[in-house]
Design goal:
Largest sheet: 2 strands, antiparallel
Helix content: over 70%
Order of helices and strands: HHHHHHHHEEHHHHHHHHH
Number of helices: 17
Strand order of the largest sheet: 1-2
Radius of gyration: 23 Å
Structural class: mainly alpha
Strand content: under 5%
């Protein structure tokens, strides 16, 4: 095959994998209406798509070694294509959850680590650096293009065509990949099932707890889950607290088991000794924070544009276009800069741009969009994310020997998708908590009749849902509220939503600032595609 044809095919597969994480965000209002569901339910679907990948990615990396890269890549492509078709044909949220969040996710856990290892198999030295930069840049481009592609197709056709097209693309990828070089299957590879169970349950429990925090409360119970008609809140504490503790404990047990298996010369699910490599540890930490921020942004910004401003899917995609353009441009620029500048310098510049862009975005979120402030902020955010995307893949892969690239690919995929899951879950929780607090406070201090105040406060005690601002007035009138009072409620809800958006952005600014600390272990010398650390 021609020199760069392999990375082109792999980049196409990577594009589809990442596209799914953002393409649905701009279609939130349309999909909610089409499937007769809620924003919270769709947030759950978005979260569980990436969570499935995070939970099973380490197993996928093992299967890549056990089956051989080409076989694993092919099976993953087939499964992913089937999941995309199911999603495109879904008529309810349950079918969408199955096809998208589960089946597609299972396909991706084989494809993503195989991509990382296949790059290492086909390219050496500076070519490998450039190949990894291309994959990273394409990942960023997919995240950026998702809103525009999703917006255009949703507005003029149907969101379903996105997933049906993905099926066609994965068929093409499958056919084109037949000439790839591949490793021989390693029959000695074994999957430690207790480890697989611990890692999967730990991640699912932790992220599910975070996802439900907006409904059940963090510590003080809000809406309490029920089992057989009995409300569950042990010792008066929210179930969320217990889920987070249990999830963290399971992951700690998982880590300890991997270390024990490794020390006894047995096969762990992942060699946790690799995390002692400073470069890899820093690369994974920054990667995780990058994907938390990316997923959070691609959730909260479309919610603001559609629910507050009332924009449709295409208009939403166009508003996000400056971010998309910057992300793609600076991903390519970062790949070129990597030939002359250290990853640390490029990453730090990216982090600073991300912080500056987020601060600007904070000021740009208003009841209406006028001027260039929002576009400039989105461009700066995209530039920062693009520079990060261009570097971190090669930083991680160059930290280990070539025979460990598929394992690192799985580890990278797990952290990447765990970050995406955490980002969507956390930002949803922050947004709902802020919206609820702000709305209740605004209502309490308003001139509304006491009975109206009490009724709203009672209903809001379990959390205020995210709904289009222009529907609040109608909802209030349908519940017997006067036109004047309905307008007051609408204004209070609008202000609360905007405040929730701003507080969500503050959370992202804090995380971006903290990621600078995490990047201390990023190499400060130019990488050449060879192993940097032992």
């Amino acid at each position: 095959m021609k020199k760069w044809s392999v990375v082109s095919i792999l980049a196409l597969a990577q594009f589809v994998m990442v596209l799914d994480s953002t393409v649905m965000n701009v279609s939130i209002s349309t999909v909610v209406k089409d499937l007769n569901t809620t924003v919270a339910a769709l947030q759950g679907a978005i979260t569980f798509y990436t969570l499935t990948m995070a939970a099973f990615m380490l197993i996928g990396a093992k299967l890549c070694a056990k089956w051989g890269l080409l076989k694993a890549f092919s099976i993953g492509s087939i499964v992913y294509g089937i999941g995309s078709l199911i999603t495109g044909l879904s008529q309810n949220i349950q079918t969408l959850l199955f096809g998208w969040s589960f089946v597609e996710g299972l396909g991706a856990v084989l494809v993503i680590p195989a991509i990382a290892a296949l790059v290492a198999t086909h390219y050496k030295g500076k070519d490998r650096v450039l190949a990894y930069a291309i994959i990273g840049g394409v990942s960023g481009a997919a995240a950026a293009a998702g809103p525009l592609i999703g917006g255009y197709i949703t507005t003029y056709f149907s969101w379903r065509y996105v997933f049906i097209t993905e099926t066609v693309i994965m068929i093409a990828v499958l056919l084109l990949s037949r000439k790839f070089k591949t490793q021989k299957p390693d029959s000695t590879q074994k999957i430690d099932m207790p480890s697989a169970l611990l890692s999967s349950l730990g991640m699912v429990t932790l992220v599910f707890g975070l996802l439900q925090s907006k409904t059940w409360g963090w510590i003080t119970p809000m809406a309490k889950p029920e089992i057989a008609g009995h409300e569950i809140a042990p010792l008066g504490v929210s179930v969320v607290t217990y889920l987070i503790i249990i999830g963290a404990l399971l992951l700690k047990i998982f880590y300890d088991r991997q270390a024990m298996l490794e020390s006894h010369g047995k096969q762990p699910l992942v060699n946790v000794s690799m995390l002692h490599i400073r470069q890899l540890r820093a690369g994974l930490a920054v990667l995780t924070s990058q994907y938390i921020i990316t997923a959070a942004l691609f959730f909260v910004v479309p919610v603001y544009l559609q629910m507050v401003l009332g924009l449709d899917a295409l208009e939403t995609g166009l508003k996000i276009l400056p971010l998309s353009v910057a992300l793609i441009t600076f991903s390519m620029l970062g790949a070129r800069l990597a030939k002359s500048y250290s990853p640390k310098r490029i990453v730090r510049i990216g982090q600073i741009l991300l912080i500056l862009g987020s601060v600007s975005l904070l000021d740009a979120i208003k009841p209406d969009l006028t001027g260039w402030a929002f576009s400039v902020a989105m461009f700066a955010v995209g530039a920062g994310l693009g520079l990060l995307a261009s570097q971190l893949g090669n930083v991680n892969m160059s930290a280990v020997a070539e025979n460990r690239t598929s394992e690192v690919g799985g580890l990278q995929g797990s952290f990447q998708n765990l970050g995406s899951s955490l980002g969507t879950a956390l930002i949803g929780s922050v947004l709902i908590a802020s919206l609820t607090t702000g709305f209740v406070t605004n209502i309490s201090s308003s001139n509304l009749p006491t009975d109206v105040k009490n009724a709203i406060s009672s209903k809001a005690s379990t959390g205020v849902p995210i709904v289009p601002v222009d529907s609040i007035n109608q909802i209030a009138i349908e519940n017997g509220v006067s036109a004047a009072d309905a307008q007051t409620i609408t204004n209070d809800y609008t202000n609360a939503q905007l405040q929730g958006m701003r507080e969500s952005i503050v959370f992202l600014i804090a995380l971006a600032a903290f990621s600078i600390v995490l990047s201390r272990g990023i190499p400060d010398t130019v990488l050449n595609g060879k192993k940097q650390n032992a």
